[in-house]
Design a protein that fits this description.
This protein is α/β, with parallel strands linked by helices. It is 50% helix and 11% strand. A hairpin with a 3-residue loop joins β10 and β11.
Length: 387
């Protein structure tokens, strides 16, 4: 085991194990309280949580690993779309999305839509402004043209999803477990299956999330609960998600084959990220085995200390991890002061793109400064200017 891997394992023991253990004891209590005897941990973030749960579970509650993803769950829920702009409230996106990624999220990535795009003077790289989508007549017209294809595909995927769910005994009063943050997959499952007896348990739910009258609870933070803690976690949310990384590709869709699902290629297969994630999770499981029956109300304390006030060593270790979403980029890896002195505009661009801006500044400047406080001031100034 090399030095970085050893450090990550120690980090898992010190900072991640107490969170997993406290979450799983909280989960067990609520499952018993609600009379739920089946709990499904959603791929991929649920894999690490299920392992922790199975380590401490001494009840008759059965745990399952359900292959799932936002894409696999949301696409089958698009069968009832009437107003084409409603898709933007169902898929998980930010303020902007390229046509290429939009097509993927609605399930048509395997379809050649170049002719449809050309007819509306669009291309795959065109950036859609989600906030002003109703004013973008070409995009709306393009989506209307492919609407029937989208709905037909959604029906087919919905049929395959139901077959997989039936094989997994995913029915009746059940619980699902995932990392969070808006309950998007739970909402999609309920729309697609009509099952309103699904109880969702999450590491956290973003405050002010519309739960749509569903059974949904966050452990670390939730609506009107620990909202200030969420404000802290949002500074390193990409790293927190990395801690749960499973060693497989994301679920693409449900499929009529021997497995019942189809996976994308694993995005981290040729890098050190896989090794580091395994080490963190191994350390966490060791902690759980060593500390049973020692629930910690401030289970996140050590994690906050490192993430909000990092040493240079941790800024480098976590900063060098690649974060893969719609594109691949480092979590926090500045290019150097000399480059930024020559091109001051580049530091703003790199800072905004950094997934962990506190770590970015620590790596860049190296000296001891209140980087968390600096980031808070920058954030407040930004929103104040935005009005």
């Amino acid at each position: 085991m090399n030095k970085p891997t050893k450090t990550f394992k120690k980090f898992g023991y010190r900072c991640f194990g107490s969170i997993l253990y406290s979450f799983c004891t909280w989960l067990l209590k609520d499952l018993e309280k609600n009379g739920i005897d089946k709990v499904f941990f959603l791929a991929r973030d649920g894999a690490a949580i299920r392992r922790a749960f199975d380590t401490i579970n001494e009840t008759d509650i059965k745990s399952y690993y359900l292959y799932a993803s936002r894409r696999a769950m949301i696409v089958p829920s698009l069968t009832d779309i009437i107003d084409i702009t409603d898709i933007f409230s169902r898929i998980s996106i930010g303020k902007h999305i390229s046509i290429r990624h939009l097509i993927k999220k609605i399930g048509l990535e395997d379809l050649n839509v170049k002719d449809f795009l050309s007819a509306h003077n669009l291309n795959y790289d065109y950036e859609v402004d989600v906030n002003n989508i109703k004013d973008d007549k070409e995009v709306i017209s393009f989506l209307e043209d492919i609407k029937e294809l989208m709905i037909e595909n959604a029906r087919n995927e919905k049929s395959d999803m139901k077959k997989y769910f039936k094989e997994m005994n995913f029915e009746g009063k059940i619980a699902i477990v995932d990392i969070g943050w808006h309950g998007t997959m739970q909402k999609a499952i309920v729309r697609a299956t009509g099952n309103k007896e699904i109880y969702g348990y999450y590491m956290g739910i973003v405050p002010n999330t519309n739960k749509e009258d569903m059974h949904m609870k966050g452990f670390l933070f939730d609506n009107s609960y620990n909202e200030r803690l969420y404000d802290k976690f949002r500074y390193f949310i990409g790293i927190f998600e990395f801690l749960f990384l499973a060693q497989e590709g994301s679920t693409k869709k449900y499929y009529n084959n021997k497995n019942g699902y189809l996976l994308y290629d694993y995005e981290y297969s040729d890098t050190s990220e896989k090794e580091y994630a395994i080490a963190i999770q191994e350390g966490a499981i060791e902690y759980i085995k060593d500390n049973k029956e020692s629930e910690n109300e401030e289970c996140y304390k050590n994690l906050l200390k490192i993430m909000l006030h990092p040493s240079y060593k941790y800024a480098v270790l976590f900063g060098n991890i690649k974060f893969v979403d719609n594109e691949e980029r480092y979590i926090a890896k500045p290019r150097g002061l000399s480059i930024y002195f020559r091109s001051p505009s580049e530091i703003k661009k790199d800072f905004i793109q950094a997934n962990w801006r506190i770590g970015f500044l620590k790596r860049l400047l190296k000296i001891p400064l209140p980087y968390y406080r600096i980031n808070e001031l920058i954030r407040r100034a930004y929103f104040s200017k935005k009005g």
